[in-house]
């Protein structure tokens, strides 16, 4: 959190549309929130921002799907938001190792 505190100027508040999308995402997919996470869970916010701004979500989420867990790529598919793995994103942008 020290880095975040030192760079508060790059963080913006969510606008009304983004907050409405976030409320809808959490209402429709409450299990998207990871209850055992050590810190804040950004996945619902990423989906809400993508819905509002037409962004693509890039995530490693989904590597170990469980019966009682909703993954961000599942939510994105349901809401017609493009979601790529980090490897797909790198390949799509022509980056190689």
Describe this structure in words.
By secondary structure, this protein is mainly α. The chain contains 5 helices and 2 strands; from the N terminus they run αααβαβα. Strands 1-2 form a two-stranded parallel ribbon. Helix 2 (about 15-30) packs across helix 3 (about 45-55) and helix 3 packs parallel to helix 4. The longest helix has 13 residues, at about 15-30. It is globular, with a radius of gyration of 14 Å. The relative contact order is 0.14. The model has no long low-confidence stretch (mean pLDDT about 85).
Summarize the entry for a quick read.
This protein has 97 residues and is mainly alpha-helical. The chain is 45% helix and 4% strand. It has a two-stranded parallel ribbon with strand order 1-2.
List keywords for this structure.
97 residues; mainly alpha; 2 strands
Number of strands: 2
Q: What is the end-to-end distance?
A: 30 Å
What is the count of helical runs? 5
What low-confidence regions span 5 or more consecutive residues with pLDDT below 50? none
What sequence of helices (H) and strands (E) makes up the elements?
HHHEHEH
Class from secondary-structure proportions: mainly alpha
Characterize the biggest β-sheet: 2 strands, parallel
Strand composition percent? under 5%
Strand order within the widest beta sheet: 1-2
